[in-house]
Write a structure and sequence with these properties.
It contains 10 helices and 5 strands; from the N terminus they run ααβαααβααβαβαβα. The chain is globular and about 55 Å long. α2 (26-41) crosses α10, α6 crosses α7 and α7 (126-134) runs parallel beside α8 (151-163). The protein folds into 2 domains: 6-66 and 102-216, 3-Layer(aba) Sandwich (Rossmann fold), CATH 3.40.50.10490; 72-100, no CATH class. The mean pLDDT is 95. The protein has helices spanning 9-18, 26-41, 53-65, 77-86, 90-97, 111-120, 126-134, 151-163, 176-181, 193-216; strands at residues 46-49, 104-106, 140-144, 166-171, 184-187. β4, α9 and β5 form a beta-alpha-beta unit. With 221 residues, the chain is of the alpha/beta class. Strands 2-1-3-4-5 form a 5-stranded parallel sheet, with helices on both faces.
Length: 221
């Protein structure tokens, strides 16, 4: 595994300063980040799934990566010029307001597809079906499960591995089956569901900050 760029370590250091109980997760936090970094360096995408509050976290992460988090992400000059050529009025406005993103698909967000598959085929395979349709070798699947034993997440992991997609698990202290089968698992040191979720948020915010700085430059402090 590659090492973390020195200029990105500040985000990990700040996270652990604010949440010292995550200190034992440091190496896994870095390893998980590097898996995502490598994915995006090769034009891959991140697919995310979870249940309940973890479903909300899936969409939250997409919101941070598909547009600016802290740092402006203007379109390239070349793309801006193409927009203006196509429409001299609207293109100027789009060139000013569009932001570059890192591709994320929250598998929890497709209600028509999800409910159709649940109704017609299998409720526990809904994330696996979407991952099979959206996923490509080189992508990354982030499975979020406070217990680590969510059956629909484990089914998606099996499909991910069959497709050559690396798996990151984000769980609680027990880790469950997800921690055993994931390529990297971050097991935050709590056992109550709501307490686990309270630590998941600063973890994925840290990842989002690091990815944004890597690919779009850092915000001024």
């Amino acid at each position: 595994m590659r090492t973390l760029d020195v200029y990105l370590e500040k985000h990990i250091d700040l996270l652990l300063k604010r949440y010292p109980n995550l200190a034992d997760c440091r190496e896994d936090l870095i390893s998980a980040y590097l898996v995502m970094e490598e994915c995006y360096e090769h034009d891959g995408k991140l697919l995310i799934a979870g249940n309940g509050g973890s479903a909300a976290d899936s969409e939250h992460i997409a919101g941070e990566l598909m547009k600016r988090f802290r740092t402006p992400r203007p379109v390239t000059q070349e793309f801006g010029e193409k927009l203006k050529e196509i429409d001299p009025v609207r293109g100027v406005n789009l060139a000013k307001k569009l932001e570059r993103g890192l591709m994320v698909i929250p598998l929890v967000a497709h209600e028509a597809l999800s409910t159709a598959y649940i109704n017609d085929v299998d409720g526990l395979g809904v994330f696996a079906q979407q991952l099979y349709g959206f996923g490509r070798k080189g992508d990354v699947f982030l499975g979020i499960s406070t217990s680590g034993n969510s059956k629909n997440i484990i089914s998606a992991v099996i499909v991910a591995k069959a497709l050559g997609i690396k798996v990151i698990g984000l769980t609680g202290a027990e880790g469950g089956e997800l921690a055993e089968v994931a390529d990297v698992a971050v097991k935050v040191p709590e056992r109550e569901t709501y307490m686990i979720q309270e630590l998941h948020l600063p973890v994925y915010h840290c990842w989002c900050l690091m990815l944004e700085e890597k690919f779009f430059g850092g915000a001024e402090d």
